Amino acid sequence: MAKQWSLADRIGKFFTWLMMTLVFIMMALAGKLGLSRQTLRFMTSQMQSPQIKQRAFKGYRPARHDVFVCTYAKSGTYWTLQIAHQIANRGKGEFGHIHDVVPWPEAPMPNIIKLSDEALHRASPTGLRVIKTHLESDYVPYSPEAKYIVVVRDPKDVFVSSYFFSQGMISGPMVPVEEWLKLFLFGKFQYGSWAEHLAGYWLWRKRDNVLFLTFEELKADHASGVRRIAAFMGVALTDEEFARVVEQSQFQYMKRMDEKFTPQRPFPFNRRVTGFAVMRKGARGGSSELLSPEQQAAIDRRMKEELERYGCDFPYAQMFEGVSTAPTTAA
Ligand code: PPS
């Protein structure tokens, strides 16, 4: 099912690459030149471009071998990818970088494996391959043939994780927390609206081929989470394979191989972005490390209002509401 690229697609791809290259140059210099704010704004405009979002899966029809991991950024994406990829490969998934084996269609870096690459699922012992996306559900092709794992995380922890991540990306002084928070609360955030993202996937949750999870439940019982994901993917693991998947998706294990998950720079800057960790703390309820109780309450209030505005009955108060004091320790 190789993707047919029209001339318009190729030109579009080229401009995306050009923009990304610019973004990476700006990122490398942002801290030194005092351009953090401008760089983050530019990154947001690129990441939120409807054209780029539409182009990501254009013409792709998901198939039986596809397991999508659909998340808002900083919600445990790589954790879930690692679990699903190891399940697909019966605990023996080897890779130099996760995106050598997991396509991420909206990301323009050319060194990411293509969605159209069939070699991977053909070689996989279960015939399955995993796909990453942060796109809203409207941009993700749905098929009853494929499987979709949706993971949602407390937006307060998402916010904190994103702050440290962006600080690492621009390798320089970050914009003040209050400014970053305003963007998060009022829909101008780098990764789009948290509530809109959730509201879209929440409509999918009752479909047989959709597994809806929270970061918090994975955190509370990692082994049960792995068991649920394996059952959902239709993979019966031996005890030994199961133990391997659990071990390889533990926080400390993944932290030791952090460079396999850190972002890759686009050609010709093919080196990985260094100097910060994707596997930072992996904690639940740790937003007090950055946010005051008032700021945490503001996130809760705003997200509840937003979910209501989208007509989404996700039980926010039960799942996420509340001011954190101390984070749980990493699994
Ligand atoms: S990304 O870049 O948006 O795709 O990031 P994402 O993977 O969604 O989220 C990164 C956060 O997930 C935490 N993480 C984990 N927590 C617990 N256990 C495991 N195994 C694990 N793997 C990743 C990671 O530490 C980031 O959260 P913070 O709060 O920043 O530590």
Distance between the termini: 39 Å
* Molecular shape: globular
Low-pLDDT runs: none
Q: What percentage of the residues does DSSP assign to strands (E)?
A: 5-15%
* Strands side by side in the biggest sheet: 2-1-3-4
Helix content: 40-55%
Q: From the alpha-carbon coordinates, what is the Rg to the nearest angstrom?
A: 19 Å
- Bound ions, cofactors and other small molecules, one mention each: 3'-phosphate-adenosine-5'-phosphate sulfate
Number of extended strands = 4
- Total DSSP helices: 14
**Which structural class do you get from the secondary structure elements?**
alpha/beta
Question: Could you give the order of the helices and strands?
Answer: HHHEHHEEHHHEHHHHHH
Quick one: biggest sheet?
A: 4 strands, parallel
Mean pLDDT: 89
Features:
single chain; 331 residues; alpha/beta; 4-stranded parallel beta sheet; 4 strands; globular; binds 3'-phosphate-adenosine-5'-phosphate sulfate
